[in-house]
Design brief:
It is a single chain. The chain is built from nine helices and 15 strands. With 294 residues, it is α/β, with parallel strands linked by helices. The protein has two domains: 198 residues, HAD superfamily/HAD-like (Rossmann fold, 3-Layer(aba) Sandwich), CATH 3.40.50.1000; 69 residues, Alpha-Beta Complex (Hypothetical Protein Ta0175, Chain: A, domain 2). The strands form four sheets. The protein has a five-stranded parallel sheet with strand order 5-1-13-14-15. Strands 9-10-12-11 form a four-stranded antiparallel sheet. It is globular, with a radius of gyration of 21 Å. It starts with 8 loop residues before the first strand and ends in a 17-residue tail after the last helix. InterPro entries: HAD-like_sf (IPR036412), HAD_sf (IPR023214). This is Hydroxymethylpyrimidine pyrophosphatase. It comes from Streptomyces aidingensis.
């Protein structure tokens, strides 16, 4: 099938890209002008993540016009707390590409492939976890976590967290095939081969997708954005703060929850422009009659 006739696939990060915690809303406007919010995640009985009411409607339009694939560093358990304002996606990617969910169920063949790849190409989880937790200072560490036995992260006090520690630890980890990413109050150490883009490529192959569009805010999203036909980066987050860019990635100026709206608008505009410019198919020829006339 020609690429132009295959479905568009939208592969997007979730946290601080399409959904936002209360601390990430960045509602800088007067209270009376703040957007109405819809809660899309509850944790331990408390509302945790939100989208704007307008964004909720845009989600529904996007799901009708493209193959929407959430792509997150969240574990499967954390992802399943999220209730996006659309039907459950046919595919979702969790644990930074370590798990593909198909209709909500884990694809064990993909996970086995990832495990084999990591074992062959980078230092083991135990070595990195021990180094991270041994060198981190309890003064600024709130929590230490292992995610799906694939990567590790810290929850830190940002006011007292030393950026020099992150730089030193990143240099040590780089030599062992791992990357370090600071996202808000979380500091991640992730094996370099564990990428969102690899899982997205596998989903695109299975779904027969044509153009891939992407959005994300952190360094763990950079490979996803680079692999897409076009991508969008919020005006906040790791990528914006570092000035990261690429020729086919649009850096938006909006920040906070209203940027989720801006991303959804941009995705839909791209999809609709593509549909308008798609070449018309020639009319099918009628079958020839027995006397040879068509």
């Amino acid at each position: 099938m020609p690429a132009a006739d295959r479905p568009v696939m939208v592969a997007s990060d979730l946290d601080r890209t399409l959904i936002y915690s209360a601390g990430a809303l960045m509602l800088a406007m007067p209270d009376a002008r703040a957007p109405r919010l819809l809660c899309v995640e509850v944790h331990e009985g408390r509302p945790l993540s939100f989208v704007t009411e307008t964004a909720a409607g845009l989600f529904a339009e996007l799901a009708r016009e493209a193959l929407f694939v959430p792509v997150t560093t969240r574990t499967r358990k954390q992802y399943r707390r999220v209730r996006l304002p659309v039907a459950e996606p046919a595919y979702a990617i969790c644990a930074n590409g370590g798990h593909i969910l198909v209709n909500g169920h884990t694809d064990h063949d993909w996970h086995r492939h990832i495990r084999q790849t990591l074992a062959a190409s980078c230092a083991p989880l135990e070595e990195v976890r021990e180094r991270m937790w041994h060198t981190a200072d309890p003064v600024w560490v709130r929590k230490e976590r292992t995610a799906e036995e694939l990567f590790v992260y810290l929850v830190v006090e940002r006011d007292s967290f030393p950026e020099s520690w992150a730089k030193d630890f990143a240099g040590w980890a780089e030599e062992r095939g791992w990357t370090v990413s600071v996202q808000g109050r979380k500091v991640y150490a992730v094996p370099r081969p564990l990428t969102k883009s690899a899982a997205v490529a596998e989903v695109a192959r299975r779904a027969g997708a044509g153009e891939i569009l992407a959005a994300g805010d952190s360094h763990l999203d950079a490979d996803l954005l680079l692999a897409a036909a076009h991508g969008w980066r919020p005006g906040h987050g790791e990528l914006a703060l570092s000035g990261w860019t690429a020729p086919h990635v649009t850096g938006l100026t909006a920040s906070g929850v209203v940027c989720g709206e801006a991303i959804l608008h941009a995705l839909l505009a791209r999809i609709r422009d593509r549909a308008r410019t798609r070449p018309a198919r020639p009319a099918p020829r009628t079958a020839p009659t027995p006397d040879g006339r068509s």
